Amino acid sequence: MTVVRIGPHRLYLGDAYGIRPTLGRMDADVMDPPYKFRAEGGGHYRKARKGMEQIIEEKLHEGFDHSIINPLLCGAVVVFCHNDQLAKLLPYIDGNFERPVVCMWQKINPQPVANKHYRPDAEPYIHAWSRGHHPSGGMNELFRIVTARSSRGKEKFGHATVKPDAVMDKIVRNVRGSTICDPFMGTGSTGVAAIRAGRTFTGIEHNPRHFATAVARCTAAWEGQQSA
Ligand SMILES: C[S@@+](CC[C@H](N)C(=O)[O-])C[C@H]1O[C@@H](n2cnc3c(N)ncnc32)[C@H](O)[C@@H]1O
User: Which residue range is the domain that position 148 belongs to?
Assistant: First the structure.
């Protein structure tokens, strides 16, 4: 296992399910795990579904083990998911946290529709918290919908599912406390937002190429924050 330290922040190269329980309690786990959805098909829209082959190759459509969301290890959790996952994920979270709510962000440039699914121009994420970790900024701010262009992650960072800075900045502002962990950090979008906001970030990623991108992005965010 490799650990890179960037100021007070720690980035781990390795498996989230093995590493996260060893890191202790954080104020919030903010995660964008592999979604569970049908990535095949698309008919004549297939060519326009950019990033889908990489998603299949990296198994980013096969879902994740919900047990990584552990109320003993975090005061609050923010978890992105596909619309189809909500029915299973919400009961799991509801039993483990005081209150879960479903929030949305709006994508200006969604992938074309496939498999008779809705055009995914609004993406959900669940924000749930235990007592003492109520979101910052009140409920209006929590439910505010950020409209953003999907990050063109494949072209810029070689990753098919990079979250936009505006979305991550808003989510980090909603989270109370100082320590934030992202066990599926990909290219480090949560880390960039957390570091810029003066929080202490811990991230885990098992793909060495994405890990290197996360280290570069978080280092730049840290240096920017130091010189501000
Ligand atoms: C949906 S992507 C996250 C993208 C990220 N939000 C960003 O903006 O770059 C999920 C990431 O989790 C990583 N991943 C999947 N399973 C993992 C595991 N067991 N341990 C660590 N990382 C894992 C994948 O390699 C992928 O980069």
Answer: 2-227
The 10s digit of each residue's pLDDT in 55-101 is 888 888 888 999 999 999 999 999 999 888 999 999 999 989 999 99
Cβ-based burial of 66 (10 A; exposed 0-12, middle 13-18, buried ≥19): middle
Helix (H) or strand (E) run with residue 89 in it: helix 86-94
Give me ligand 1 centre to Cα 227, in Å: 30
Q: Ligand 1: distance of its center to the CA of 207 in Å? A: 8
- Buried-exposed string 132-151: b where 16+ CB fall within 10 A, e elsewhere: ebebeeeeeebeeebebebb
| Cβ of 169 less than 6 Å from ligand 1 | no
Rounded to whole angstroms, what are the CA distances from 45 to 61, 109, 150, 152, 189? 18, 14, 18, 18, 28
Query: Distance between CA 40 and CA 52 in Å, rounded?
Result: 8
The enclosing domain of 213 has a CATH number of 3.40.50.150
- Taking the CA of residue 187 as reference, the ligand 1 atom at the shortest distance is 9
Copy the structure tokens of residue 43.
Answer: 């008919």
> What pTM does this model have?
0.92
**How many domains is the chain partitioned into structurally?**
1
Return the ligand 1 atom nearest residue 35 CA.
1
Q: Helices then strands (H, E): number in the chain?
A: 8, 9
Structure tokens, 170: 């808003």
